[in-house]
Amino acid sequence: MAQLNYNGYMIKLSNSAKETSDFGLILAKKSQGGEIYSLVGDLGSGKTYFAKGFARGLGIDRTVQSPSFILLKVYEVKNNKKIKYFCHVDVYRLNSSKEILEVGLKEYLGKENTITLIEWADKIKDVLQGHTTININFEWLDKNKRKIIIKNPR
Ligand SMILES: Nc1ncnc2c1ncn2[C@@H]1O[C@H](COP(=O)(O)OP(=O)(O)O)[C@@H](O)[C@H]1O
Ligand SMILES: [Mg+2]
Question: How far is the C-alpha of 18 from the C-alpha of 39, rounded, in Å?
């Protein structure tokens, strides 16, 4: 995947859904626990494909789908000393931040034994305030191409 670093940003060009999910897989393997991934981008820009690869990178073999209808889904991570849970959130259909608090997001957010990945995170900025997030933006370029922009990569 082509990569460019510019002004504190890492910009990647993905040429296929597989490249996007493989990128998620790599970041999963680099994660330590406690991370909050904020994924922002239009419908079809690749957020869920990234999440699928991320889950695979944590050794989760259950299929990860967009949890749009249930907002939050927690997967158990096995065979990892630090990371016990992968919390996949999709707030696309959210009407108010209150709804995501009601399903218990705070129990997972930023916890050392958990990685939280939030699709449409820009919709719950108020909930995420005060937390450090890893921000990833997804942009649709053409049918199979996506631009992935990461701020302040570690
Ligand atoms: N380079 C790419 N990266 C990610 N998805 C891609 C890419 N090229 C084509 N696609 C397609 O775009 C769609 C992305 O869907 P999805 O990951 O569910 O998006 P989102 O969760 O952002 O709404 C899928 O149908 C996937 O097959
Ligand atoms: Mg999605």
Answer: 17
Residue 34, both tokens: 């406690």
Q: Is the pTM of this model over 0.90?
A: yes
Q: What is the pLDDT of residues 13-40, one digit of tens each?
A: 999 999 999 999 999 999 999 999 999 9
129 Cβ contact partners less than 8 Å away, ≥ 6 residues apart = none
* Pocket-testing residue among 18, 49, 68, 120, ligand 1, by greatest number of atoms within 8 A of Cβ: 49
Cα 114 to averaged position of ligand 1 atoms, centre (Å) = 25
Distance between CA 139 and CA 149 in Å, rounded?
8
Concatenated DSSP letters of 8-28? TEEEEEE-SHHHHHHHHHHHH
Q: Whose CA is nearest to atom 9 of ligand 1?
A: 144
Show the domains of the chain with their CATH numbers: 2-151 (3.40.50.300)
Q: Give 91-118 pLDDT, tens digit per residue.
A: 999 989 999 999 999 999 999 999 999 9
Q: Give the Å distances, CA to CA, from 151 to 9, 13, 37, 64, 134.
A: 5, 15, 11, 25, 7
Residue-level pLDDT at 68: 66
